[in-house]
Amino acid sequence: MNPIDLYKKLPKKNCGKCRQKTCMPFALSVIKGETELSECPLLTNEEIEALRGSVTKSDWREELILSLKEEAKNINFKDIANGIGAELKKDNSIAIKCMGREFSISPDGDITTHGHITPWIKILLLHYIRTAGKGELSGKWVSYSELRGGMVKASSFLRDCEEPLKELLERDFAQTEKILIRLGAEKREGFPTENAWHLYLLPKLPVMILYWPQEEEFESKAKVIFDSTADRFLDAESIIFLVEGLVKNIEANLFLDKK
Fold first, then answer.
1. With pLDDT > 70 as the criterion, what percentage of the chain qualifies?
2. Contact criterion met (CB below 8 Å) for 10 and 25
């Protein structure tokens, strides 16, 4: 079933109650694997089950996942587990924590966890394994532009990561903070704002999320800073991918909490 076919099966009310707000983008997002059918508040359980069997989620990301899985087969997990902060299991699989959830990756590159796994998280974890970074965290916080390759993509990071994060905090600060804590974030002191949260997105990729609410003539601002070793564990493009995923995760949780 392609997005048009799925759209024809939807209520087509454009009710604005899902994250995509209208039915066509919702259909496209479902086909891409970014959204579950259950996020449509107008579909009954029976309709969801009937549609689920007809939806084949397939796009460029699935091809990338297959390619990354093939690469994973050539990686000795025993050699890289300690360097990336993963736990080596008896069956030679590794366990990696990402945003409060634990994922298991087999030597064949198969990824399992409790609950739904998006193509985004599969690509991210397989990239993290492939990079196979090493070294201890420095404890020195730097902006994205200070990371290797970050200066070139700094405007993209602002547009795709920090600005959307700021909008979520502006929209519902209390609930967004609750979700951050649910994902494993901890409030920290000693930063230029009292709204500072420390969060491990991956075992060797902690971030500090800083937020300044609007004050008189000063606009609100959100900034994400990294341990200076972050570029050892993911490249600049993948780090954008990682923080974008955090934003989408928060957005999805906000939507589900309100249902």
1. 97
2. no
